[in-house]
Design a protein that fits this description.
mainly beta, three-stranded antiparallel β-sheet
């Protein structure tokens, strides 16, 4: 099987996926808060050419920062 990940939204910022043709791609999150990045992953059977797709959403949030009160 081959896999292909494609970002479908938002249109900006566009993420650079490392390993977009693997089962476990990764990316460095941009400086955004509470944004859903949506992807379509398509699996292709190398022998038959048959395909199946699914949708995946990843929400990126800024980390919570604790404030020291001294």
């Amino acid at each position: 099987f081959r896999s292909q990940w494609t970002q479908v939204s938002p249109t900006s910022p566009v993420l650079t996926l490392t390993g977009a043709t693997t089962d476990n791609p990764s990316f460095t999150a941009p400086d955004v808060n509470d944004v859903d990045f949506r992807f379509v992953v398509t699996y292709t059977d190398s022998a038959t050419g048959r395909q199946a797709s699914d949708k995946v959403a990843v929400r990126v949030r800024k980390p919570i920062t604790q404030i020291s009160t001294g």
